């Protein structure tokens, strides 16, 4: 709707003024390494640095198969930072029954999970109910 569009456009200066937020250069480099290597691995410090950190020339992979924490997965069909295929891969690595919520929002992108005008009703309410059910 026109009203939705106007609210969204008016918010852009605020959004851009706070982005990127909550991350570091090292985190962005790590993300790029994950894309390049196509492995869920720890940070790659280079051969010498890896030897100092991991006692190995290459970074070890994360083993998520042993996680036992009840998990909620939310994915967006237009999310290019957390691709739905990657979320599906992650779910396949987890033990059966660990994923308690798996919600796919076809029209969501990465930032919609934070800035989306309907995120409260489409994501947060369900997430809060899930967390409360675990307490």
Description:
The protein is mainly alpha-helical and 135 residues long. 50% of the residues lie in helices and 10% in strands. The protein is built from 6 helices and 2 strands. The protein has helices spanning 2-17, 25-37, 46-54, 84-93, 112-115, 119-134, and strands spanning 71-76, 99-105. The chain has a two-stranded parallel ribbon with strand order 1-2. Helix 4 links the parallel strand 1 (71-76) and strand 2. The longest helix has 16 residues, at 2-17. The protein is globular and about 50 Å long. The model has no long low-confidence stretch (mean pLDDT 88).
Task: List the topology elements.
Layout: H1 2-17, H2 25-37, H3 46-54, E1 71-76, H4 84-93, E2 99-105, H5 112-115, H6 119-134
Q: What characterizes the major β-sheet?
A: 2 strands, parallel
Task: Please give the order of strands in the largest beta sheet.
Answer: 1-2
- Choose one word for the global shape: globular
Structural class: mainly alpha
Instruction: Report the total helices.
Output: 6
The succession of helices and strands, N to C, reads HHHEHEHH
Strand content bin = 5-15%
CA-CA gap between termini: 39 Å
Strand elements, count:
2
| Average residue-wise pLDDT | 88
Rg computed from alpha carbons, rounded to a whole number of angstroms: 18 Å
């Amino acid at each position: 709707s026109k009203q939705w569009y106007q609210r969204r456009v008016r918010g852009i200066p605020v959004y851009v003024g706070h982005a990127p937020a909550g991350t570091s250069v090292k985190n962005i480099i790590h993300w790029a390494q994950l894309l390049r290597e196509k492995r869920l691995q720890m940070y790659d410090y280079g051969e010498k640095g890896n030897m100092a950190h991991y006692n190995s020339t290459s970074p070890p992979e994360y083993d998520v198969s042993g996680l036992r924490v009840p998990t909620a997965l939310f994915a967006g069909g237009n999310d290019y930072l957390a691709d739905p295929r990657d979320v599906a891969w992650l779910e396949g690595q987890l033990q059966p029954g660990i994923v308690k919520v798996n919600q796919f929002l076809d029209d969501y992108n990465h930032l919609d999970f934070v800035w989306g005008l309907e995120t409260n009703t489409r994501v947060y309410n369900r997430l809060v109910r899930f967390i409360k059910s675990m307490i």
